[in-house]
């Protein structure tokens, strides 16, 4: 399979970025406006395992990040990723629209749209079991990886 034939999907939070301290400070409700404030995003840290995998996978295919982060934090997020050593030059990042609250359903829909537009999705790296299981039965021949803490598990 050539590099152009393979799309590898990554999430940001819980996969490339460790946002556990932000969650601890604010709670799990990512839909609240303040969750993505500069004040709270300052608690984010690089997730070394996810960054290493992302960099390795660039050699295998096209990287597409599909994130539940709202579009309004695009600039802050790209700055954050760059500061953590993620080279964004050849990575496509899809942010959720600011007015969408159902993050998991939106991510599944967006990934299926990528598939339907000709993206051969070889792998999905995600921290949401719900997203993985919604996709697993809709996209055949794809490898799914669940990221939790300092581990990644093939599902």
Automatic annotation (TrEMBL):
<keyword id="KW-0732">Signal</keyword>
<dbReference type="InterPro" id="IPR036412">
    <property type="entry name" value="HAD-like_sf"/>
</dbReference>
<dbReference type="InterPro" id="IPR005519">
    <property type="entry name" value="Acid_phosphat_B-like"/>
</dbReference>
<protein>
    <submittedName>
        <fullName>Uncharacterized protein</fullName>
    </submittedName>
</protein>
<dbReference type="InterPro" id="IPR023214">
    <property type="entry name" value="HAD_sf"/>
</dbReference>
<dbReference type="Pfam" id="PF03767">
    <property type="entry name" value="Acid_phosphat_B"/>
</dbReference>
């Amino acid at each position: 399979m050539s590099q152009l034939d393979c799309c590898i999907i990554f999430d940001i939070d819980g996969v490339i970025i460790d946002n556990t301290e932000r969650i601890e400070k604010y709670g799990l409700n990512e839909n609240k406006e303040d969750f993505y404030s500069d004040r709270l995003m300052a608690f984010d840290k690089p997730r070394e395992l996810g960054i290493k995998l992302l960099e390795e996978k660039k050699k295998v295919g096209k990287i597409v990040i599909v994130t539940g982060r709202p579009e309004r934090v695009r600039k802050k997020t790209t700055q954050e990723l760059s500061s953590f050593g993620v080279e964004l030059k050849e990575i496509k990042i899809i942010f959720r629209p600011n007015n969408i609250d159902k993050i998991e359903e939106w991510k599944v829909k967006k990934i299926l749209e990528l598939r339907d537009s000709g993206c051969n999705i070889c792998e999905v790296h995600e921290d949401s079991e719900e997203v993985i299981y919604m996709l697993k039965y809709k996209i055949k021949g794809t490898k799914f990886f669940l990221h939790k803490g300092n581990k990644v598990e093939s599902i």
